[in-house]
Amino acid sequence: MRRILQPGPPPETRHAAVVTRGLNFETVLPAGQRLLDAVAAAFAAHGMASGVLRFGDGAFAPLAYVMPALPPTPAHAAFYSETFRPEGITRLRSGALTFGRRFGQPFFHCHAFWQEASGHQSGGHILPEETRLAAPLVVAATGLGDAAFEAVADAETGFTLFEPRGEGANSAPFHALRLRPNQDLAAALQDYCRQHGIARALIRGGVGSLIGAHYADGRISTPFATEMSIRSGTVADGDARIEIELVDYEGNLSGGLLHQGDNPVLMTMELVLEAL
Questions:
Q1: Within-domain flag for 273
Q2: Residue 238 — pLDDT band, cuts 50, 70, 90?
């Protein structure tokens, strides 16, 4: 399996997890607001301070984003590009978002895919401070009751990354997860479910990066630095089926059902498993 050497020491435990109560809900984020403010208000309205969500068709104006990039120094295995700010209204196709706190303030980690007013199709990492909703956005969200995603310094990658924190619950259907680098995404989720006696689970949210991508239909995306979001996913009877969208550092877009056993995590993968 492909591997990318990270600059720091790898912890023995290859995931962070909190078992938690939670709540699934759908809501509409109103036009005109900053995306960060609208997301924070939506979770607060349901009594939640953290969680994950997915969305489809919508629009941003303005939009500010970065893409994956090669690292300028050995301090990181991959990095991010300059900031892009396309003119006009950007039409969304899909995306996923993890909402939590960074330095004590509401923050999110969001990867999305879209078409810009110029017709250019792209995707990347949305910047919370600058991006606003140009149209109402329907989202499917999962709020966390006994856990929260908190941004923490990660010695392995050299970045500040979301990890689930909290006391958790002895028995609850939701599992907030962060997967660490250089492990196959499907295999890691299958192993986690097996260890926790979960026969069947839905994947909620899903934001992170893979070392390229190998799809179930045989297509392979070779550039190693990527950003991706999970469009849908299940783990059932030891079998993980995960559909994604992805952009690599060369600007190539791809997506589809992942091949099992050959899609290692590059930096991180944040998601929530809901045991059924």
A1: no
A2: confident
